[in-house]
Automatic annotation (TrEMBL):
<comment type="pathway">
    <text>Amino-acid biosynthesis; L-methionine biosynthesis via de novo pathway; L-homoserine from L-aspartate: step 3/3.</text>
</comment>
<dbReference type="Pfam" id="PF00742">
    <property type="entry name" value="Homoserine_dh"/>
</dbReference>
<dbReference type="GO" id="GO:0004412">
    <property type="term" value="F:homoserine dehydrogenase activity"/>
</dbReference>
<keyword id="KW-0028">Amino-acid biosynthesis</keyword>
<keyword id="KW-0520">NAD</keyword>
<comment type="pathway">
    <text>Amino-acid biosynthesis; L-threonine biosynthesis; L-threonine from L-aspartate: step 3/5.</text>
</comment>
<dbReference type="GO" id="GO:0009088">
    <property type="term" value="P:threonine biosynthetic process"/>
</dbReference>
<dbReference type="InterPro" id="IPR019811">
    <property type="entry name" value="HDH_CS"/>
</dbReference>
<dbReference type="GO" id="GO:0050661">
    <property type="term" value="F:NADP binding"/>
</dbReference>
<dbReference type="InterPro" id="IPR005106">
    <property type="entry name" value="Asp/hSer_DH_NAD-bd"/>
</dbReference>
<dbReference type="InterPro" id="IPR036291">
    <property type="entry name" value="NAD(P)-bd_dom_sf"/>
</dbReference>
<protein>
    <recommendedName>
        <fullName>Homoserine dehydrogenase</fullName>
        <ecNumber>1.1.1.3</ecNumber>
    </recommendedName>
</protein>
<keyword id="KW-0915">Sodium</keyword>
<keyword id="KW-0479">Metal-binding</keyword>
<feature type="binding site">
    <location>
        <position position="104"/>
    </location>
    <ligand>
        <name>NADPH</name>
    </ligand>
</feature>
<dbReference type="InterPro" id="IPR016204">
    <property type="entry name" value="HDH"/>
</dbReference>
<dbReference type="Pfam" id="PF01842">
    <property type="entry name" value="ACT"/>
</dbReference>
Length: 425
């Protein structure tokens, strides 16, 4: 029986998982796709490095051995980064090969170019693993929910930050303590900036919003804010307000344009996303026909991500078997505007240190009123001779109106500090 051959670009955590999964399922591939599947080449930086369990004869550091091999029909890119991944994927598609990638960084910036090239060559470019690891979300939105007008996609799409916030809530850890534990367990990289500052989640939300709303969203369109400023005091107030704090990716398709952002949010404990703990991810979507649906599972890791990659590989192999590659290409057929984040409306949790004097609250209320900010609640607990701590909850207000109000408040002698600004779902 004819074999279907694939090449693997990269043999790190995800690449190793893909290779192991292919070997583990080798006997079943004939039944799943109608033929055998073989990894015939693996592109690595250093072919002399010891890689237990991997046939060294498969290793190469020469891209030409892959791109010029007519028997290789599927290229699996799990190297990450922009270059050389972008160039290799474009060359593979132009050479008539199909591509599966897990590269969120690349797709969030150059997705249109890659998908247009795939469509031109009538080849598959699949990328389920680029968003939420092992959780199926791209294919469900492109296929299972294709009859829906999706107006909302929100999610916890970064396991590192979710783990940190879980430990802060459940074990009263500080941010620094929780980050150290996440690093020790391998959830956080040595440089955790992309995770804790919301950049990783922002790239995923650019891809997910593009799919959900059928209109191109790139990483630069996404407002990003991380969790480094979340404190034990914020956690305590969230608990008092029957809420938890999660780093949420939030995308809405509104009459005024697409809203897309990543930032911490207080979310009611009764919302399904509030129960997503540790390194798990979840995506919540709203469609006009399906109503609400939530996808939950492992958002990263060797085998969860490899599971998503291999789901795409099997899909491509089936399409090759029946001669129908390229049947679902770019679905961004709309050209919707991206709303400026300054015009997005949110509710806010504000914690500030103020002078313990009569009339301070009235001064704050006046400034807010002058800038179209409506107050929903005020809590004052900590009172000392040196000052008092006020917690103010607002109604929905445009981001720019709240910012202009806070700019004025920060100049007032009676306002010692604005300690926290967190949005509420």
């Amino acid at each position: 029986m004819e074999k279907m051959k694939a090449a693997l670009l990269g043999l790190g955590t995800v690449g190793s998982g893909v290779y192991k999964l292919v070997q583990k399922r080798s006997d079943e591939m004939v039944h799943l796709i109608g033929t055998e599947l073989e990894i015939s080449k693996i592109l690595v930086h250093n072919i002399k490095k010891e890689r237990p369990g991997v046939d060294s004869a498969l290793l190469t550091d020469n891209w030409k051995e892959i791109i010029e091999d007519p028997e290789i029909q599927i290229v699996i890119e799990v190297m990450g980064g922009i270059e050389p991944a972008r160039t290799m994927i474009l060359e593979a598609l132009n050479a008539g090969k199909n591509v599966v990638t897990a590269n969120k960084d690349l797709l969030a910036v150059h997705g249109k170019e890659l998908l247009d090239t795939a469509e031109k060559n009538e080849r598959d470019l699949l990328f389920e693993a680029a968003v939420a690891g092992g959780i199926p979300i791209i294919r469900p939105m492109k296929q299972c929910l294709a009859a829906n007008d999706i107006t909302e996609a929100i999610g916890i799409v970064n396991g590192t930050t979710n783990y940190i916030l879980t430990k802060m809530f459940e074990e009263d850890m500080s941010f620094e303590e929780a980050l150290a534990q996440a690093t020790e367990l391998g959830y956080a990289e040595a440089d955790p900036t992309a995770d804790v500052e919301g950049l990783d989640a922002g790239r995923k939300m650019a891809i997910m919003a593009s799919i959900a709303f059928h209109s191109r969203v790139v990483f630069d369109d996404v407002y990003t804010e991380g969790i480094t400023k979340i404190t034990a005091q914020d956690v305590a107030y969230a608990k008092e307000f029957h809420s938890v704090i999660k780093l949420l990716g939030v995308a809405h398709n509104t009459e005024d344009g697409i809203e897309v952002a990543v930032h911490p949010m207080l979310i009611d404990v009764d919302h399904p996303l509030a129960s997503v703990r540790d390194s798990f991810n979840a995506v919540f979507v709203h469609g006009d026909a399906v109503d609400d649906a939530m996808f939950y599972g492992r958002g990263a890791g060797e085998f969860p991500t490899a599971s998503a990659v291999m789901g795409d590989v099997i899909d491509v192999a089936r399409n090759l078997k029946y001669g129908c590659t390229g049947r679902i290409s770019c679905t961004c057929y709309r050209d919707l505007k991206i709303k400026s984040f300054e015009d997005v409306k949110n509710r806010f949790f504000l914690r500030m240190q103020v002078a313990n004097e009569p009339g301070v609250l009235a001064q704050i209320a006046k400034v807010f009123g002058d800038h179209k900010v409506s107050i929903a609640r005020v809590v004052q607990k900590k009172v000392e001779a040196s000052g008092a701590e006020l917690v103010i909850g607002t109604e929905k207000v445009k981001e720019r109106h709240l910012k202009s109000a806070l700019d004025v408040l920060k100049q007032m002698d009676s306002i010692h500090e604005v300690s926290s600004i967190i949005r509420e779902y």
